[in-house]
Task: inverse folding
């Protein structure tokens, strides 16, 4: 009799503690511990809020921020909106891996910011940012953590010899090649060929403009899909030529339409499966003529009749090859005028 | 006796904790510093913050209604990159709660491209249009004056019949700038006129108001620092109250000098002492004055145009294509 009562009491005591533990695991209190990329919604929101109010000096440091002061300082008005985080991860939707090479220049943070603002709308997107630098910079690290996206941050420096020497026409020096190859290498390292995930790889330069429709078009690529790109090749847009049967039969470009793949980097996506099946396929560094960089990768992966035309049989423009003007920083002078600690 | 009390306490404690957590989660999605396993001081201060949050739970139950609306007035004009700029601007604005976008075209009539864009934009949007008179289209003259004034007029007209107070904040968003999401958090708490730094403007990495003791005392700018408000169009926001209580405050055309647009407007509605510095006392750059390169369309053929009509930009607004006749390469 006594035993049973003791058992009951112990059970009654243990039960609420167990409940407490489960609640504690589920809800935002654990955001201090979990620095995992696949976080729950609440974790991401709370992280974004706290990170958003970090003090200026910490911009230069890794994100060890003084949350307590910030919490007391910020007004309560803002905490209730549920934006600035991506839609919840779905286990059934194919993942879109976006590889973005980037390099340090004044507009870098602005470009990555507006890119992140676009990517936050897309479900199951994993952003692979590859910096052209010897070390991962704090600017990019902080930005990626604040953004709330699923990301991977890599870096590889392009040797000076490659930056200068490859072609006497500077506009045709393939840029971002090493970085894109590193992105592909990471993918091949992270996923095995025997159990490839459902997904696509897309190379997104940080100054282009992407509509949200584009990502849904590319998501279900079986091998390699293609679509028109605006503002390339000196045209309003370049696009693949699609036969009435829905097969790609050529290229509507003025600049060298006889290339095997006369398409811009932003105009195609490759399925992960194909990337893993052909581990030798990567962008060539040397001996690549202007406009042939995309060909150097695609020729090892697919032939023209294996391409899948998207965007309503390549009749809609969903991506624009915009370029951002270099800002005139004449007033900085030789030694720089503005405070270098303020991150721009 | 003691053991009974002890066991009762053990029983009650976790339930009390559970109730507190659930209440907090229900009332607001805010983080709970009280339960964080961080240092004592922070935890103490944090828990102090959490209690008032729980007490304020009832008003926060309708969070969307309490949030002031942000009105973004964007003048836009037809050129190749227009659709691209509007697209990525919309992608940013859609991440912001309660943002009402006022798009004003520099055109005599609503263009199809923008109308279609607005229909599928995915956020509350007002589509206006007002053409700029040709005599004001000379280089060196301020641009988009008529469009911004049209946006202001629409706002005033819309709110004239509604009772005060009208929580709302207005800012001028050019379609080629870049906005971080943090900026909107900062400007939403504007009481009168708030200011912050702008990146990549004035020939410098950034320009900003100089702040001392929470008040603006000067301007850190690369160009004409003697202006009364040496700030860029992207560097300030005005509360709706102020706009409505100054019905005659508009952007000037007559007698306007280049670069004085912002000053001429702001001095009609506020003084430097009243400005509210944001972005951590104007030390963080949350908006960048990016500009997009002009697109190279040299290869566009004059004849044998494409068989499909794809919308990228407005074809009829490109008279300068005619001048490329001599330079056109091989056409189809």
Result:
């Amino acid at each position: 009799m006594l035993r049973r009562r003791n058992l009951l009491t112990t059970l009654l005591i243990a039960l609420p503690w167990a409940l407490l533990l489960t609640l504690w695991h589920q809800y935002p209190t654990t955001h201090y511990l979990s620095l995992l990329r696949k976080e729950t919604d609440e974790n991401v929101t709370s992280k974004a809020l706290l990170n958003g109010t970090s003090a200026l000096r910490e911009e230069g440091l890794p994100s060890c921020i003084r949350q307590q002061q910030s919490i007391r300082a910020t007004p309560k008005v803002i905490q209730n909106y549920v934006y600035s985080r991506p839609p919840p991860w779905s286990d059934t939707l194919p993942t879109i891996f976006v590889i973005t090479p980037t390099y340090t220049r004044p507009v870098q943070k602005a470009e990555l910011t507006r890119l992140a603002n676009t990517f936050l709308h897309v479900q199951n997107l994993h952003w692979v940012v590859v910096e052209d630098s010897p070390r991962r910079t704090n600017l990019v690290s902080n930005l990626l953590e604040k953004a709330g996206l699923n990301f991977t941050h890599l870096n590889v420096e392009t040797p000076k010899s490659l930056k200068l020497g490859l072609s006497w026409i500077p506009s045709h020096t393939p840029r971002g090649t090493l970085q894109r190859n590193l992105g592909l290498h990471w993918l091949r390292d992270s996923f095995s060929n025997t159990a490839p995930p459902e997904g696509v790889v897309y190379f997104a330069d940080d100054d282009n403009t992407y509509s949200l429709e584009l990502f849904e078009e590319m998501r279900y690529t079986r091998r390699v899909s293609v679509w028109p790109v605006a503002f390339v090749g000196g045209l309003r847009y370049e696009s693949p030529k699609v036969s009435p049967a829905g097969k790609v039969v050529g290229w509507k470009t003025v600049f060298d339409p006889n290339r095997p793949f006369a398409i811009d980097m932003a105009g195609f996506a490759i399925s992960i499966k194909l990337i893993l099946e052909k581990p030798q396929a990567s962008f060539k560094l040397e001996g690549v003529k202007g406009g042939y960089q995309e060909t150097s990768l695609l020729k090892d992966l697919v032939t023209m009749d294996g391409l899948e035309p998207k965007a309503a049989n390549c009749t809609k423009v969903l991506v624009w090859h915009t370029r951002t003007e270099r800002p005139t920083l004449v007033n900085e002078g030789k030694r720089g005028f503005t405070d270098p600690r303020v991150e721009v | 006796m003691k053991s009974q009390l002890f066991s009762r306490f053990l029983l009650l404690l976790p339930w009390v904790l559970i109730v507190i957590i659930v209440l907090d989660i229900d009332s607001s999605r805010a983080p709970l510093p009280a339960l964080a396993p961080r240092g004592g001081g922070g935890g103490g201060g944090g828990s102090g913050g959490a209690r008032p949050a729980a007490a304020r739970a009832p008003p926060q139950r309708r969070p969307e209604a309490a949030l002031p609306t942000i009105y973004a007035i964007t003048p836009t004009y037809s050129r190749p990159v227009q659709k691209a700029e509007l697209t990525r601007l919309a992608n940013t604005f859609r991440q912001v709660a309660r943002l009402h976008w006022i798009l004003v075209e520099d055109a005599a009539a609503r263009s199809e491209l923008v109308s279609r864009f607005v229909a599928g934009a995915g956020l509350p949007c007002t589509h206006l249009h007002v053409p700029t008179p040709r005599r004001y289209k000379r280089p060196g003259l301020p641009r988009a004056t008529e469009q911004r004034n049209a946006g202001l007029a629409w706002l005033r007209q819309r709110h004239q019949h509604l009772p005060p107070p009208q929580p709302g904040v207005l800012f001028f968003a050019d379609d080629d700038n870049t906005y971080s999401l943090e900026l909107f958090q900062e400007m939403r708490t504007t009481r009168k006129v708030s200011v912050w730094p702008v990146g990549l403007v004035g020939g410098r990495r950034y320009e900003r108001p100089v702040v001392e003791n929470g008040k603006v005392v000067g301007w850190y700018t690369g160009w004409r620092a003697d202006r009364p408000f040496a700030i860029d169009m992207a560097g300030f926001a005005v509360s709706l109250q102020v706009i409505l209580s100054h019905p005659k405050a508009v952007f000037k055309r007559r007698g306007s000098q280049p670069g004085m647009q912002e000053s001429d407007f702001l001095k009609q509605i506020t003084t430097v002492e009243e400005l509210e510095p944001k972005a951590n006392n104007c030390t963080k750059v949350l908006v960048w004055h990016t500009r997009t390169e002009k697109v190279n369309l040299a290869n566009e053929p004059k004849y044998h145009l494409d068989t499909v009509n794809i919308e990228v930009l407005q074809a009829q607004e490109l008279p300068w294509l005619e001048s490329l006749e001599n330079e056109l390469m091989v056409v189809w």
In short: Confidence is low (pLDDT under 50) at residues 28-83 of chain A. The first strand of chain A starts at residue 95 and ends at 102. Chain A is about 30% helix and 15% strand.
